[in-house]
Amino acid sequence: MKISTLLGKNRYKKQDKSASFPRKWESRTRQEHVVTPLVPRVRGDDGLGLWTSHFRCIRSAVHAPWIALLVLGLLGGCVTTDTNSGTSSSDSRGEGASLRPAENRYPKLTADGAAYNTLGQLVRGIGESGGGGGIVLVAGLEEWPAPPVKVTRAVYATGLKKLVAPANCLVDSGAFYQFVYPPGYEALLDVSVWEEVHPRFQGLKATFAVGAGTDMYNALALLSETLGVTVIADNAIADVWCGELFLYDAPAPTIVEALLQSARVVPGAFVVESTEHYIFLRSAANMTKSDTCVNRAGLSPDARALLEKTVDLRLPTRDGTLVFQYEAMPLQAVLDDLAEQMGVAVTADAVLADFPVNQAVYLGLPISDVLDLIIRQWPVARFGYRADADGIHFCVNSPE
Question: Cα dist. 113→141, 164, 300, 336 in Å?
């Protein structure tokens, strides 16, 4: 089994263990972003806020360097394939009813909250202890004090509820993980992608973990590398922070659902597009066309052959190795990477030079799909590309 992790360096601060546990949950937002709620808060001031960032286009400083470079660990094993996954009727998580197991799927839980400063540390400790018990924590809760509660060989869900209840948290039990969230965020329980993803993805499984504060685009790039497929999001979705997450031998759609839940992306805020080649998560406001080639009708046979060429492409890459980022890259900075991996010249209009391109992995895709997915990260239907036998050119496809 392949275990993929993308865990940030220890960001957790020392907490006053004598402090009372919070009753109000405050949203952490990036100072340089204007943020907007995806849905109204269910409980007024008592919510974390269900957030996503506005489109980050035409900006050179796309992220504040608030977090250290993330650490990538790949531990040996294999990705498994299960052709029967996700084929039955859906439950509240989008998983098939037959996938919801008896409690004995999970190991017995032993944990001591007093040994940890924060909920994030507690969840990470439980996740790293292994044993097959998946656990996901909503982003924003990781820095709250861990209750000084101890459980020993408890039924997994029951023990976890006991551990987090003093911190005013709830637990939803699913087929592959326990989801820890605050009251008022039940909307996240309805996140589902199973019906939208291509059947090819439903049989892929992996063991997967990311740390709190991981950008969604880094998590999806790691997931793509892990599964050997392409999973990508537009800028509005890719820019959100994931919560602490550990999953064991879980299907690919379940991993995507867990990432979205942890990042507080609610149903109705995103749309899933999927072919046999990729999963694309776009914000509901992103109305870009699936085909962004502006000269499709006039393509020469050589240009058509170029666009149909299948490639494995990673952005950014150094000597063929994916390099994880803590910020997006301007388009101008990745043109050489694109040209080298596509085997053709790649240029762009000057006005697009600083447009943000997120960390991403494109595996087994026609070049036309790669270009469409890069351009559709910018959720404004004004951009495209021209193709001819000599190369690719990113361009504005409509007047100002």
Answer: 15, 9, 65, 50
Q: What are the chain's domains? A: 3-10+67-279 (no CATH), 290-396 (3.55.50.30)
Burial zone of 391 (CB within 10 Å; 0-12 exposed, 13-18 middle, 19+ buried): middle
41-90 pLDDT, tens digit each: 222 223 333 333 323 322 222 222 222 222 222 222 345 544 333 322 23
Apex CA 17: angle with CA 13 and CA 19, to 5°?
A: 100
pTM for the predicted model, two decimal places: 0.79
Angle at 192 between CA 362 and CA 134, to 5 degrees: 85
Contacts of 94 (CB under 8 A, 6+ apart): 191, 192, 193, 194, 195, 253, 254, 257
The answer to whether 197 and 279 have CB atoms below 8 angstroms apart is yes
Answer whether 215's CB lies under 8 Å from 238's CB: yes
